[in-house]
Each structure stands twice: as C-alpha cells, then as structure tokens.
Design a protein that fits this description.
422 residues, alpha/beta, four-stranded mixed β-sheet, 30% helix, binds uridine-diphosphate-2(N-acetylglucosaminyl) butyric acid
Length: 422
C-alpha cells in the first residue's frame, strides 16, 4: 500500500486548483438511473470513490465512460438490467446507497445491501427507510439486503426527516422527481451538494423548489431527459488547502473557491487571526508567520461548520496559541486522527464527542496511520509544519477523496512524495 512522506518546514506559495466535489459527484452519478437518455457530468474529480460508483452503475447495466482524463463522465441508463446493489461494492463505499431512490423511482423495486458501519460511526439507514415508507414503499431486511418494493410506483406526500441527513435528502429528492404527485421534504439537508443535485435534476426536466432551504417541494413528472451538468467545487478540498498555508506559512490562492461554500469555516479562520480574501479567481489565504489563535469549533449540518473539515481544523489548532475545544456533533467516532497527532507531539484530550486541543509551538514528524479519508489529510497538513519527516501510511483512504494531493501541495512548495507500496 502506498504512503505519503512529508518533510515539514517549507512555507507554501502559489495556486491550487480545486476539483469538483466528490460528495456532489457521488449523488449526481446515480441520477443517471432516473432517465434512459444520457447524462454527462463535467468537472468530475478523479478519485477512487468515483471508480467505485462507476462499477456499481455498470453492475446495474448503465454505460459509464470516463472522458477527458477522467474529468468528464458520460453515462446512459437506457440498458438498465439489474436493480440489485451488491454487498461487494456497497461495503467499499456507503454512498452506494444513493442508487436506492433512483431505482425505486424508475423500476418500482430495488435490492440494496445495507452498508454496515465504518470507522467514523455506525451510520444506519433508518432515515432513508422511513422516508421511502412515507412514499408508499414496502421495505424488508433479508440477508443484509434492503428489499424495497412499491405497489404501482412511489407516491408523493410529506416526508419529514428526523435529522437533516444529507444522503436521505438526496435519495428522496431523486426518487420524488418521478413519484406521483407532490413530495415535500421537511427538515431537508441544505448542503451545497444538494443544491447542485437539484440543479442537475432541473436540467433533466424535474420540477423542484426550495433546495438550499429545509423545505424542498418536488412535483413528480412522467419522465426525465438527458442533460450536461458541471459538478460544483469541492468545499472540503477547498477548506483543506486553505488550511495548508495557515499551518506551513505563506500564501495560497485556491482557484474556483467561493466564500458562500465555506462561510462558517472562514468565520473560524478569521477568529483565529487569518486573512482570507475573495479574489475573482478564488480564495486567497495568507499567513505571515505568526501562530493562529485558538478557537472553539462545533460541527453542524450546513450552514454550520462541516464535520468533513473537523480533522483538518484540529491539525491547525495543534499549532495554535491557546486551548481550543472541538465538538463533533455529526459522527460518534470521528477523532481517530487525535492519537496519531499526539504521536507527533500534539496535546489533545478526547472525552466522548469533545476534544480539547492545547496548542504547542512545535510538533515532530513520525510514522502515522490514516484511519479515514479526512483523518489522512489532517496528518499530511500537520506534517507540513512538523520538524523532520512524517510518513502517512494506509493512504488508500486519501485517494478516495483527494486527487493528486502530492502534486497539488508539491506545486506550491511543500516537500511531499508518494512512496509506492510493494
Ligand atoms: N444517520 C442516521 N440514519 C440515517 C442516515 C444518517 O442515523 O438513515 C446519521 C449518521 O449516522 C450520521 C448523521 O446522521 O451520524 C449524518 O449522516 P448523513 O446522512 O447526513 O451523512 P451521509 O449522507 O452518510 C454525507 C457525506 C459525508 C459527510 C456527511 C455529513 C457523501 C457521500 N458523504 O454522508 O462525507 O460527512 O454527509 O456532512 O455525501 C466524507 O466525505 O469524508 C464524508 C464522510
């Protein structure tokens, strides 16, 4: 397995182009199942999770081709021949459950493996199941698979989510485009990836209003047609690279970045004394050498501080002046990076969902183990400022969500290389 070797102490200067959002692409790709006409996505990120979704869609009979070096995905579901999402693929990636809504809507039935837990938490599917039942689906669990059927198709109605789940909102939004009548999603998630999905579905002929608010109204239509849609900028990759010059020093402009995607995050950077400037090309972050100030952070659904930037923020706060308190409210087990950062000299106490970070002036490189995607990149960020070498092992997690991390950071002056596994 590959590892990433970072030698700390090099200030960063230059530009980093931010890719299309992994979490938007992973819900836009299953949207192809809703129509028998082609759907083309541009600005697709080149990631292993995209390959996994490609394999899943192909296993259902969809045609999926990566064009333009993987930045364009051309898809067509006219020859759909299966409604079963197999455990062998679903276990690799939870977002596989996003085929359930489109399959139910188009075919009236689907068999989708339950994904099981993962490193960051149990991640059940009860909210998705309750929502589809409210739309008239009958769902049974057999042999680890959800067997979902409908009598004459899904029906609109009021679907109130007990929590503003991103995946459940996406699944119901897709399904409701072809359901009979009007569906109202109450307590819907408001993430930019949901607005991006709704924009794509509208381009396919869907009737949707209210995306980006907690009440989405969808008027079902008989069929959707083909479309071409650009994937929204990845706000998590954006936030990750915005933290790099804060930790390593220097100035980096993140091309394609927009303040509206990362407002709550930028508020915390500003509170920590960091200058963020919106330019006509993206977001520029400057750190003139001093240490950032400690800040307290609580993760929340959008527009709150994203859980997917919590690990990276912790890496920065390890070097801050003072004590910060990080509260993780979305996932029950998302501090796996803390013990690895401690191996590098960080001072962190974790109690349940709260981590107290006592900032230190220096950290030292060490071999560390990546436990999940965002944890992996937080260790690379810490390595940028740690003395000596940090070797981040098990980087397959990283490749799920960050394209060419060593090239992007290397181009702005970081000393970073990939060591190929045996
Ligand atoms: N939850 C339930 N029941 C459900 C669904 C969710 O209890 O039926 C719980 C989860 O266990 C979790 C919380 O609700 O504790 C939030 O889950 P949500 O459904 O909102 O998350 P998701 O759709 O599974 C997406 C992203 C995650 C991101 C979360 C939160 C994708 C493919 N994944 O997951 O991204 O952390 O929203 O913003 O969109 C990542 O990219 O590193 C990542 C984990």
């Amino acid at each position: 397995m590959d590892s990433i070797l970072v030698t700390g102490g090099k200030p960063l200067r230059g530009e980093i182009a931010i890719a299309g959002a992994k979490n938007a692409a992973l819900t836009l790709m299953p949207a192809t199942l809703l129509s028998d006409e082609p759907l083309t996505l541009t600005n697709t990120p080149r990631l292993s999770d995209i390959k996994t979704m490609t394999a899943l869609l192909q296993s259902l009979g969809a045609e999926v081709s990566a064009l333009a070096d993987g930045k364009v995905m051309a898809m067509s579901s006219h020859g759909l021949n299966s409604t079963r999402a197999d455990y062998e693929i679903v276990r690799k990636m939870r977002a596989s459950n996003l085929v359930l809504g489109p399959l139910l809507a188009r075919e009236g039935h689907a068999i989708v493996s339950l994904p099981g837990g993962c490193a960051i938490g149990a991640r059940p599917m009860d909210i998705h199941i309750a929502a589809f039942e409210a739309m008239g689906a009958i769902i049974d669990l057999k042999d680890g698979y959800l067997h979902a059927t409908t009598q004459g198709g899904l029906k609109g109605g009021v679907v109130k989510l007990r929590f503003a789940s991103v995946g459940a909102t996406e699944n119901v939004l897709m399904a409701a485009t072809l359901a009979k009548g009007t569906t109202i999603i109450e307590n819907a998630a408001r993430e930019p990836e949901i607005v991006d999905l709704a924009t794509c579905l509208r381009a396919m002929g869907a009737q949707i209003e209210g995306d980006g608010t907690s009440r989405i109204e969808i008027q079902g239509v008989d069929r959707l047609h083909g479309a071409t849609h650009p994937v929204v900028t990845d706000r998590i990759e954006l936030g990750t690279y915005m933290l790099a010059p804060v930790i390593a020093g220097g100035e980096v402009e993140c091309l394609g970045g927009k303040l509206s995607l990362v407002e709550s995050f930028v508020e915390k950077l500003t509170e920590a004394g960091i200058t963020v400037e919106e330019t006509d090309r993206g977001l520029k972050v400057r750190c003139d050498g001093g240490r950032p100030k400690a800040v307290n952070v609580t993760t929340e659904p959008f527009p709150g501080f994203p859980t997917d930037l919590q690990a990276q923020m912790m890496a920065m706060l390890c070097f801050a002046e003072g004590t910060s308190v990080l509260e993780e409210k979305i996932f029950e087990n998302r501090f796996m990076h803390a013990p690895e950062l401690i191996r590098m000299g960080a001072k962190i106490d974790v109690h349940g969902g709260t981590a107290t970070v006592h900032g230190v002036e220096k950290m030292k490189g060490a071999p560390v183990m990546a436990t999940d995607l965002r944890a992996s990149v937080s260790l690379i960020l810490a390595g940028l400022a740690a003395e000596g070498e940090t070797q981040v092992n098990r980087v397959y997690h990283l490749d799920r969500g960050y394209e060419h991390v060593e090239e992007k950071l290397g181009a702005v002056g970081a000393q970073i290389e990939r060591i190929k596994g045996q």
